[in-house]
Design a protein that fits this description.
Elements (H helix, E strand, L loop, with lengths): L1 H23 L11 H18 L9 H22 L1
Helix pairs in contact: 1-2, 1-3, 2-3
Length: 85
C-alpha cells in the first residue's frame, strides 16, 4: 500500500512536469493566474536546479528531461527501499 502511494506521488509529479513542458510552448500563458501559477510553483524548484547546471542549448531547455530521468531513478530507489522493509 505504501509502495503504491509513493509511486502515485511520483507519477503525479511527472504529469505536472509534462504539463509544465507543454504549457511552456504556449507564449500567451499568464503564469500568474491559476492553475498555471500552481503548476509553476510546484515544478520550477526542481527544474531550476538543473537550469543552473545545464544552460539552454540553442534556446532549448533540457532541464525537464534531466529532471524526469532523475525522478525515475529516485522513484526506483525509494520503491526498492520500501519493498525491503
Amino acid at each position: 500500500m505504501l509502495t503504491r502511494a509513493v509511486a502515485n506521488l511520483f507519477n503525479l509529479y511527472n504529469i505536472l512536469l509534462l504539463i509544465r513542458i507543454f504549457l511552456s510552448w504556449i507564449p500567451s500563458i499568464d503564469w500568474e493566474s491559476q492553475p498555471f501559477k500552481f503548476t509553476r510553483a510546484i515544478t520550477d524548484p526542481l527544474l531550476n536546479i538543473f537550469r543552473g547546471i545545464i544552460p539552454p542549448i540553442s534556446g532549448l531547455d533540457f532541464s525537464p528531461v534531466i529532471a524526469i530521468i532523475l525522478l525515475q531513478f529516485v522513484e526506483s530507489a525509494i520503491l526498492r527501499i520500501i519493498a525491503g522493509l
